[in-house]
Design goal:
The chain is an alpha/beta fold. It is built from nine helices and eight strands. It has one domain: P-loop containing nucleotide triphosphate hydrolases (Rossmann fold), CATH 3.40.50. A hairpin with a 6-residue loop joins strand 3 and strand 4. The structure holds 2'-deoxycytidine-5'-monophosphate (DC).
């Protein structure tokens, strides 16, 4: 039985399609921790902007309305949920429309500031695996375990296209790489490997093997505590 220190935060950052969600959920359920998908929050904000008719490429227009949607995440790793103003948007936030708009919306500082508050509130006293792009660097810089996941673009596109029920792999690859470019290049909280993060290239590993590696990192922290 692995021991987890109280107040534990496991930060899982990385590129789109590197396996962050499956890994984070697997680690959380194995260790009895909660799970927070911060990407889903940015997607929910984007879904709301599109529905409200806001031009997602107009940063000032997005900033002006960033305080309006009420975004609530359920943190059960076996059944995570995301709601906007009481509406379940778990499926709607995975649409092509949201995929194409989420990176520009996420680059707006007011959006990040707003969601940072919601994320810190959800993290609360810890006992949680948190996945995103800036968790180890900005949201939870004191996290006891920080992981940075990457994988070859071809492997990422293949996995993501399979998840999306056989979507076109070339188009999926372009969409992933485009999001990486914007996420890495933005001025506020860009995608970076945080200080103290362990880099795992997941290309050659199965999901179970990656989960094993992260669980081993958490267990090592528990043993040192
Ligand atoms: O993890 P994902 O693919 O669902 O994330 C969707 C987008 O949300 C991603 O392209 C960038 C943004 N994001 C972010 O800027 N910061 C986070 N902590 C999580 C996601």
């Amino acid at each position: 039985m692995s021991s987890t220190p109280s107040g534990l935060v496991v930060a899982v950052d990385g590129t789109s399609g590197s396996g962050k969600s499956s890994t984070s959920r697997g680690v959380a359920s194995r260790l009895g921790l909660r799970y927070l998908d911060t990407g889903a929050m940015f997607r929910a904000m984007t879904w709301w902007m599109l529905r409200a008719g806001v031009d997602v490429h107009d940063a000032a227009a997005v900033a002006a309305r960033a305080a309006e949607p009420r975004i609530v995440s359920g943190t059960d790793p076996l059944a995570p949920t995301i709601a906007v103003d009481g509406t379940d948007v778990s499926v709607a936030i995975r649409s092509d429309e949201v995929n194409a708009a989420v990176s520009p919306v996420s680059a707006v500082p007011e959006v990040r500031r707003r969601l940072l508050e919601v994320q810190r509130e959800a993290i609360g006293a810890g006992g949680i695996v948190v996945e995103g792009r800036d968790i180890g660097s900005v949201v939870a810089p004191d996290a006891q375990v920080k992981v940075f996941l990457t994988a070859d673009p071809a492997a990422r596109a293949q996995r993501r296209a399979a998840e999306e029920g056989g979507a076109d792999e070339d188009a999926t690859r372009e969409s992933l790489l485009n999001r990486d470019r914007i996420d890495t290049g933005r001025a506020t909280a860009p995608l970076v490997q945080a200080d103290g993060a362990v880099h795992l290239d997941t290309t050659a590993y199965t999901l179970e093997q990656v989960i094993d590696q992260v669980v081993a990192l958490v267990t090592a922290v528990g043993e040192r505590a």
